[in-house]
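S.,

Sequence below, as promised.
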Amino acid sequence: MLFRIGLPFENFSEYEIAIKTLLNRRNNIAHGTEGKGISEEEYTQVKEATFGIMNGLIHLIMDALKEKKFLKVIEN
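The prediction came back faster than expected:
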């Protein structure tokens, strides 16, 4: 998604495993294949990754606004 709007996505590669874990957990719960809770340690990891991603996105968007990057032409 970030790539499509011209924002660098490489900064978030450290969260890739946490994102996939969260997505898989969500899908398993939604489809009824998993109903148990998660450990406190897993919750903390997901929470930290979520807030890290949110803060990173805030900084990317604010930087793009300050630098008016949304006005620049992106070459393919």
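The two ends are 16 Å apart (CA to CA).

Coffee later?
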